[in-house]
Design goal:
It is a single chain. This protein is an alpha+beta fold and about 400 residues long. It has three domains: about 150 residues, GAF domain (Beta-Lactamase); about 80 residues; about 140 residues, Histidine kinase-like ATPase, C-terminal domain (Heat Shock Protein 90, 2-Layer Sandwich). It is about 45% helix and about 20% strand. The protein is elongated, with a radius of gyration of 26 Å. The protein starts with a helix and ends in a 10-residue tail after the last strand. About 25% of the residues are buried.
Length: about 400
């Protein structure tokens, strides 16, 4: 569908000679229009941004289900200046059309901005109406195909979820039995070798705790994936969280893998961060993916450091490694549908999980990386969510 939207928008811009344009798709669950594709100046600042169905010319067109020509946006009360203010782009004139088949409810809006020669007019509206209808028809067909595919995936994932639960059950039970056996063994050895027993007991308890925690999170994650595919993705569950506690759980889980690879995991400044309103599960998954992806890229003797600092009404968190770094073409695709993994067996989904988690909190994530100089992910998360009480 990404390719369909891009081709339709490119055709629309070329046929009327316009500078910029966008396709916004409606999400009725969140009551928003989202910039699914943007072309022209400042396009990278808008893609993925969402706003209420009540806002701007796009919101008006979506609700009315009819196209409109705005010859001068500065004199039109429907124009929402928030987009121009965010991007620094100046909209002069525009045509906005509902994305719908010849009959039926709109699925979104197409906007075409700033005709290069003259002002957008009725002739432009006529040809763009045809393009938008064809685009809507193709998008709908792509969606139906995707829904059928996801229904099959959901069925298979339901089976997998059941199998995972059954496979984890003996692991959890075995860990409990092992815990009991080790307690008896350590008690018999404690008098003869107290120092060695204390160290071994601590290590074994850490491993057992990791097994229990990882088993719980695996089951929770599989349920979440299944719900997402079925279209039942739960909204973020915001509550007062400490970043240091979340990251500490990630480090504990991945410490044995890092030790095996000869990589040091560090936490810096996280304990000084304030409480923030966050979804603990989503942030755990985000940091887990960042650290887990970094470890194989770091040579023996290197490190992965998670550091944080408060800045105004946000917290800034860096996940920095001393690894191989990324090629420019890999780095530029990271947070797009074209993201791919450079690791054997990788899927490229790790950074999508991170981006989705950060977006759910209204934050931003960026990356700095060069071959031979390591990689640093920068996460900015708001301390409070809109309408929420102060985190304490």
């Amino acid at each position: 569908m990404e390719d369909l939207v891009e081709r339709a928008l490119q055709a629309a811009l070329e046929v009327v000679g316009a500078e910029a344009g966008s396709v916004l798709l409606a999400n009725l669950d969140t009551h928003e229009l989202r910039f699914a594709h943007v072309m022209g100046a400042k396009a990278d600042l808008l893609k993925g941004t969402a706003f209420s169905l009540d806002h701007g010319v796009a919101g008006w067109v979506y609700k009315k289900g009819e196209g409109v020509i705005v010859g001068n946006v500065k004199t039109d009360s429907r124009h929402w200046e928030g987009v121009d203010q965010r991007t620094g782009y100046e909209t002069r004139d525009m045509i906005a059309l509902p994305l719908k088949r010849w009959a039926g409810e709109p699925i979104g809006v197409m906007e075409i901005l700033n005709k290069r020669d003259g002002v957008l007019d009725d002739d432009d509206l006529a040809i763009l109406t045809i393009i938008s209808a064809i685009a809507a028809d193709q998008i709908e067909k792509a969606r139906l195909h995707e829904e059928a595919r996801l229904a099959e995936v959901a069925r298979l994932l339901g089976d997998i979820s059941h199998d995972v639960k059954n496979l984890l059950m003996p692991v959890v039970c075995g860990a409990g039995l092992l815990n009991s056996e080790l307690a008896d063994l350590f008690a018999s050895l404690e008098k003869e070798h107290p120092k060695q027993v204390d160290a071994s007991r601590k290590t074994c308890q850490e491993v057992l705790d990791m097994v229990h925690d990882a088993s719980r999170r695996i089951q929770d994650r599989v349920r979440g994936i299944a719900d997402c595919i079925k279209g039942r993705s739960s909204p973020p569950q915001f509550m007062a969280c400490r970043i240091d506690a979340i990251v500490e759980q990630v480090v504990k889980t991945l410490r044995f893998l890092a030790d095996e690879k000869g990589v040091v995991l560090r936490m810096e400044g996280l304990e000084q961060l304030p409480f923030l309103q966050a979804d603990e599960r989503r942030l755990y998954n985000a940091f887990y993916n960042l650290v887990n992806n970094a470890i194989p890229e770091v040579p023996r003797g290197g490190s992965v450091t998670i550091r944080g600092a408060a800045q105004g009404d946000s917290v800034l968190i860096d996940v920095a490694d001393t690894g191989r770094g990324m090629l420019p073409e890999v780095r530029e695709r990271l947070f797009t549908p074209r993201a791919v993994s450079t690791k054997a067996g990788g899927t490229g989904l790790g950074t999508k999980i991170v981006k989705d988690a950060v977006d759910a909190h209204g934050g931003q994530v960026t990356v700095d990386s060069e071959p031979g100089r390591g990689t640093t992910f920068h996460l900015r998360l708001p301390i409070r969510q809109p309408g929420s009480p102060p985190a304490t």
